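Tokenise the fold.
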Amino acid sequence: MGQLDQFVVFSLDEQRYALPLQAIERIVRAVEVTALPHAPPMVLGVIDMAGRILPVLSLRQHFGLPDRAVVPADRFLIARTALRTVAVVIDEAQGGIERRQSDVGGRRPGAGPRPRAMAERRRCPLALHRHRPACGPCRIGSSPRRIGRG
């Protein structure tokens, strides 16, 4: 048996993902995002949260989901990375789970090979700099991991 780790579960388009609890600062209601010119597609803009300017990131493109505008029903998952605190747009927070790190995995069984665009991606999943998708300094404990359908 391995040590159990705590994760926060969230959804994007009925897909469930998880991030380590220790990386999560809080989850808040979505607010208006100020766009940034020349930002990478994953960076939707910034928000002011209690005097802190946070980049707002969408993981939809990273996971091959269709893009859409932020709506009032969305939530921002405020997460700490090694470089900065970020706001990640999520559809819904679904609570916490305890699992072994090895049990919270990537793609579902039988999903087939990863799409070429994702396999060849050279940006970090949090769009903080150009690097491999599993870059060390930017990882929020680890990259968001898919855990199945909602």
Notes: The two ends are 27 Å apart (CA to CA).
